[in-house]
Amino acid sequence: MTKQRNLEPSGNFSAYYHSPIGTIEIAGTEKGITGLAFVRPKRIKASPVPSCLIDALVQVDEYFQGKRQEFSLNLILGGTEFQKKVWRELLKIPSGQTASYKDVAVAIRREQAVRAVGNANGLNKISIIIPCHRVIGSNGTLVGYGGGLWRKKWLLEHEQKLKQDKK
Question: Could you give the C-alpha distances from 125 to 33, 67, 69, 167, in angstroms and in order?
Fold first, then answer.
């Protein structure tokens, strides 16, 4: 399922999960998760990681197995107050649903900041857990996803299928 490694002696760690849509690196410290990104597969020597990364691996695995729709992890957000406000709003978008950049701008009471919302969305370092893939264009099209639009489409279809299966 996973391979893990200690990135630096300074307390930054990474753990890896091999998902159906590519290898995922989950980064964090002993206090919480700082990143989740798709990476090229690597050969990694396993080493101990903090319990919060183990929890993240388990929850990401449950997500891909269709057993989890929401995450319960301590997230360490690094960004401006505006970016953090956008990311907290993204956490409110339910699994299996989408919102437009405009919807997010309105929700944070910054109706004219659609472009800034898009920029903050693109700077989200904790994808999937902070579900930036659930943000779409105002016309309903899939736009902008750092992991690739094909992955965004897969994630949205995965969540939609889970939502339908629960009915």
Answer: 10, 24, 19, 32
Spell out where 73-148 has E strands: 99-100, 135-136
Please tell me whether residues 93 and 159 are part of one structural domain: yes
Say if CB 15 and CB 2 are below 8 A apart.
yes
Residues in the chain, how many?
167
Is 129 in a helix, a strand, or coil? coil
End-to-end Cα spacing for the chain: 30
DSSP designation for 22: E
Tell me the pLDDT band of 86, cut-offs 50, 70 and 90. very high
| CA distance to 62, 64, 93, 158, per residue, from 68 (Å) | 5, 8, 15, 11
**26 within 8 A of 4, measured Cβ to Cβ:** no
Residue 9 lies in a domain: yes
- Asked if 52 is an active-site residue, the reply is no
Q: Which domain holds residue 136?
A: 81-166
User: Is residue 6 predicted with pLDDT exceeding 50?
Assistant: no
- Prediction pTM value: 0.88
**Same domain, yes or no: 57 and 86:** no
Residues 6+ apart with CB under 8 A from 153: 142
Catalytic residue among 33, 36, 57, 132: 132
